[in-house]
UniProtKB/TrEMBL annotation:
The lineage of its organism: Eukaryota, Metazoa, Chordata, Craniata, Vertebrata. GO terms for molecular function: calcium-dependent phospholipid binding; metal ion binding. PANTHER family: COPINE (PTHR10857), COPINE-8 (PTHR10857:SF133). This is Copine-8. Belongs to the copine family.
Length: 578
């Protein structure tokens, strides 16, 4: 209903029912999917670059490329300036990028020695390149990644240092309050029941709703309650972008009457209470019809207060580690792994659904874990040598040390387990949840946060115990992602997700929502493009993690640790442009 982008001017402001089917004016939850989680600024420095010039040192430039998800094509994102005559450049021009925790953004930094004014890179000497992900930079200590430059066989090409800095405007929220005077009377028997609707403008000139005030009943001079909104949601961090505010008279049947509108911008609003922030409410239809029309009332800004929020990146930069654990369903309902119909079938040419879900989520999370050692567990199988059933066994066969090195290590242990355990049952989640909860309970100081990925084919056998485990875990620094594979009905999983009804056990409700469930079948790309399927899956299951992480820190009053002191490079003076 809301959040749909509507080209400017499409709605007829004069007609009743100016807002489509708006039955009630309740809390409006901004859809954040179209707004980047935050913007980061990348600074690039190099040390000991190759010297390609005979009589002087190289004149380096850095070119950044990003990679499209589907076809893997590299596209140029931007270039720094050229710095003359140095092998240790500290580039001044920054790269500003949108950052999403839940997306894997592959980056490539190419370095050239510039020999002429030509913008064509093939005319200049290649000095090497460095590949990484944006998450790798952000997840490094102090958000500072140092990596070797490669690409010229047999040569040491030097190192590159990339530092990420979150842009301040993305973390600001504003607390605003408005009142209105002498609004048009729209109700036959009483006065109007006014409320405001705020829209931010988009690049293409359309508008997206971003906030609705409450209704103030039976007055032409309402004073609305102060409300808080992020600067991202209000104007996407662009202080001069148009903000359109519409004034409506609320009607019980949902056909709210349009009173009028005005436009402003974040920059104008930030002047605070002043003569600049008294707005005439204009109804274009009335203005066109009546010669003596002045306005339909005025709206005044009463207060404007900027608050800076601590962000997910503040904690990561301060050294908080994300610990990733994976738990895989080895119950018999998955089918015999040697048969192509099995969900665990080991196809030599293609990952099975378990492998895809594991890689999709794991490859993103591993950037935030410094040691890249992940516990990998299985449940619902009979183990050698005696055939006992286990709901919490180490995939690598070592219960004392279930850690695997990187996602590749987890995949290896998963395939190894398939060859030596017998798929059995039942499907019990509580043991693996309690396993991670024991670790999470031992570090509640904000230095670590735990993410458990459970991949399952469905029907859960220990629902009551699992609910109890989740309610207990909701007090701990942990989140649970459940990916359902195969064709089963996943009603029980939806219940665990708790998005509709907060999960409870024996009368106790979960302190916060920590479970995210998705069925893998919703992400199978019909064209067979598994890369796209995996990217979409990762985006949906990981999107809630930063907010779940912040909700834990906020409830516990844990502030981010100070980041290590920033790297300050020596200053170079000589710069030319390309």
């Amino acid at each position: 209903m809301f959040g749909l982008e509507k080209p400017a001017g499409q709605q007829e402001p004069g007609r009743s029912g100016g807002l489509p089917k708006m039955a009630s004016v309740g809390d409006f939850n901004v859809l954040s999917s179209s707004i980047p989680a935050t913007k980061v600024e990348l600074s690039v420095s190099c040390r000991n670059l190759l010297d390609r010039d005979t009589f002087s040192k190289s004149d380096p430039i850095c070119v950044l490329y990003t990679q499209a998800i589907g076809n893997k094509e590299w596209r140029e994102f931007g270039r720094t300036e050229v710095i003359d005559n140095t092998l240790n450049p500290d580039f001044v021009r920054k790269f500003i990028m949108d950052y999403f925790f839940e997306e894997r953004e592959n980056l490539r930094f190419d370095f050239y020695d510039v020999d002429s004014k030509s913008p064509n890179l093939s005319k200049h000497d290649f000095l090497g390149q460095m590949f990484c992900t944006l998450g790798e930079i952000v997840g490094s200590q102090g958000s500072r990644l140092e990596k070797s430059i490669v690409g010229i066989p047999g040569k040491k090409c030097g190192t590159v240092i990339v530092t990420a800095e979150e842009l301040g405007c993305c973390r600001d929220s504003v607390l605003m309050q408005f009142c209105a005077n002498k609004l048009d009377k729209k109700d036959f028997f009483g006065k109007s029941d006014p409320f405001l609707v705020f829209h931010r403008s988009n690049e293409d000139g359309s508008f997206t709703i971003c906030h609705k005030t409450e209704v103030v009943k039976n007055t032409l001079n309402p004073v609305w309650q102060a409300f808080k909104i992020s600067v991202r949601a209000l104007c996407n961090g662009d202080y001069d972008r148009t903000i359109k505010v519409e004034v409506y008279d609320w009607d019980r049947d949902g056909s709210h009457d349009f009173i009028g509108e005005f436009t402003t911008s974040y920059r104008e609003l930030s002047r605070g209470q002043s003569q600049f922030n008294v707005y005439e409410v204009i109804n274009p239809k009335k203005k066109g019809k009546k010669k003596k029309y002045v306005n339909s009332g005025t709206v005044t800004l009463l207060s404007f207060l900027i608050e800076t929020e601590v962000s997910f990146l503040d904690y990561i930069k301060g050294g908080t580690q994300i610990n990733f654990t994976v738990a895989i369903d080895f119950t018999a309902s998955n089918g015999n792994p040697s048969q192509p119909t099995s969900l665990h079938y080991m196809n030599p040419y293609q990952l099975n659904a378990y492998g895809m879900a594991l890689r999709a989520v794991g490859e993103i999370i591993q950037d935030y874990d410094s040691d890249k050692m992940f516990p990998a567990l299985g449940f619902g199988a009979r183990l050698p040598p005696d055939g006992r059933v286990s709901h919490e066994f180490a995939l690598n066969g070592n219960p004392q040390n279930p850690y695997c090195h990187g996602i590749d290590g987890v995949m290896e242990a998963y395939y190894r387990s398939l060859k030596c355990v017998q798929l059995y049952g039942p499907t019990n989640f509580a043991p693996v949840i309690n396993h991670v909860a024991r670790y999470a309970a031992s570090v509640k100081d904000g230095s670590q946060y735990f993410v458990l990925l459970i991949i399952t084919d469905g029907v859960i056998s220990d629902m009551a115990q699992t609910k109890e485990s989740i309610v207990n875990a909701s007090k701990l620094p942990m989140s649970i992602i459940i990916v359902g594979v195969g064709p089963a009905e996943f009603d029980a999983m939806e219940e665990l997700d708790g998005d509709v009804v907060r999960i409870s056990s024996r009368g106790r409700f979960a302190e916060r929502d920590i479970v995210q469930f998705v069925p893998f079948r919703d992400y199978i790309d019909r064209s067979g493009n598994h890369v796209l399927s995996m990217a979409r899956l990762a985006k949906d299951v990981l999107a809630e993690i930063p907010e779940q992480f912040l909700s834990y820190m906020r409830v516990r009053g844990i502030k981010p640790s100070p980041a290590p002191p920033p790297y300050t490079p020596p200053i170079h003076v000589l710069q030319t442009q390309i």
